[in-house]
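Bug #77: duplicate submission created two jobs. Keeping one. Sequence:
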Amino acid sequence: MKRIALVLILLISFNFQLKATETNFAFYPQFSYSDETGFMAGIISYFRFQFKDYPPEITRQNITANVVYSAKKQFAFRFIPSLYSRDGKYQLESKFDYDYWPSEFYGVGNKIFDKEPEEYTPQKINFDLRLKRRIKNNWHILALGEYFHSRLVKTEEGGDLEKKKILGSEDYQLVGLGTGLVYDSRSSTSYPTNGSLLDLSFKGYSKAMGSDYNFLQFDLIGSKFFSFNSKQVLALTARTILTDRNAPFQKMPHLGMYMRAYNDTRFIDQKLVNLRAEYRVFPWTSKFFERIGFVLFLDTGQTAAQINDFRLNDMRCSYGAGLRFSVFLEDRFNLRLDFGFCKDDSNFEISGGETF
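Kept job's structure:
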């Protein structure tokens, strides 16, 4: 499905600094158009602060919120606080998502565009908790929790979702708990210029905890960052997600979420591998233009029902370029706009923070 998109971002920052409480607040209106959403408008906002008695080396508390609404009656709200303890040993990352988003379902599998998708409208609520504790040097242990609720408000008559042939077609809820291990030597969490990240997590969903499904999910992320100089960074990452066969389709890995040329709902299956590379540059030093940067990227990957079903010639690929605007210059917390392309499709993405 070929998509033509026009994007306009109004880069007006309302940035207030209260030095006594070390508080920063900024919000950015965003406007966009594509044939998937029609005209879409929204606001991305950032709030950073620090408690008065915290040592200066502790990362600031920060909250990100985003709301968008489209001409096709698509609505999404994100609320993402990240809080640190006074001694820096604990970090609580949570995320609340609400989506009412008319979408397209292409089926399950690493398929090409060989059939017309089904139209459906999901209503989803997702609440994630991720507590991280430093145990030694750059090593951290994780405690994970999640609540997820899904309801298909509308489905296409005669389709697989309407006939309840796909797991997740009915109303359901999930409650999951998990753990993990993290090694993080990155120079920054918002814009790393060097260092490494290894993030291994495991989560289980059980009817004994109130879930309507029993399944397990394993997620492994490895990233490496190289700095050529103060303005240029090469970022590399690899990801593997393994989910068992009892998972509803909304909780299976979606390759489209990591491939910027595709819709998020493309290429859904139980297993996923993904490789990504980005060249990031902020070329200018003048007072205003030093906030503006650019990115070139390459994404590749595939999904499969089983590990032994992965094939090198089935890898999907997307490439593209992006624009960055630093909301908070001292740690390069960026507003990003990415254009992705491939032989089958094209897409754009507007969000806050880097993709990895």
